[in-house]
Design goal:
By secondary structure, this protein is of the alpha/beta class. The chain contains 6 helices and 6 strands; from the N terminus they run βαβαβαβαβαβα. It is about 35% helix and about 15% strand. α1 runs parallel beside α6.
Length: about 200
């Protein structure tokens, strides 16, 4: 089975717009994200993007538009030396109470089935507590970035005592931390892995 890095889209890879990303013209990569994904592509980890896209069932954009955005995003990442092994999105509104909208882990479970991924030895990068909950539900090591909604979400987590994730300034920082952990794991005897204590770390 492969291991993966699951990455949220809005606020982690691209700017998180209050009025939603409704077309490719409105999709703007955050600084350094393509370079970070190119570094990640050099590893053996699968790169999987998971994103809530309730704009579909709210009637704001069509499925075709969302898939066109993801096709162009993937092409731009590949042109910069990166790799995307899968893109999974949830079209449901919160009130539909589906099993795939984060914080539910449905998209991760679907990716695990389709891409043969070992979730308990994978990573997740997001900018919201709902991302962390989805990753924690299936045993991923989770990283919250301070881009997008991250700074506000992190402060909320501190107030509420929500933890079990590591803190990173941005996608580049999270990728650096993950690759460092991968290098450390490669130096250990077979069957051992770097200690994972949970909680927020900086």
């Amino acid at each position: 089975m492969r291991r993966a890095v699951f990455i949220d889209r809005d606020g982690v890879i691209c700017h998180n717009r209050r009025d939603h990303v409704k077309s490719w013209d409105e999709f703007v990569f955050l600084p350094g994200t393509r370079a970070a994904l190119a570094r990640l592509a050099e590893s053996d980890l699968a790169v999987v993007i998971i994103t809530n896209q309730a704009v579909i069932n709210r009637g704001i954009v069509s499925v075709d538009t969302v898939e066109d955005i993801h096709r162009r995003m993937t092409q731009a990442i590949q042109a910069a030396g990166g790799r995307v092994d899968g893109v999974f999105y949830c079209p449901h509104r919160p009130d539909e109470q589906c099993g795939c909208r984060k914080p539910q882990p449905g998209m991760l479970l679907q990716a695990a089935r389709e891409l043969d991924i070992d979730l308990e030895h994978s990573y997740l990068i997001g900018d919201a507590w709902s991302d962390m909950q989805a990753g924690q539900a299936v045993g991923c090591q989770c990283y919250m970035v301070l881009t997008g909604r991250g700074r506000r979400q992190f402060l909320s987590c501190l107030r509420k005592g929500q933890n079990g994730f590591r803190l990173a300034r941005n996608l580049q920082d999270a990728v650096h931390m993950i690759l460092a952990e991968e290098r450390a794991a490669a130096c250990l005897p077979r069957g051992l892995s770097p200690s994972w204590t949970g909680g927020v770390s900086r």
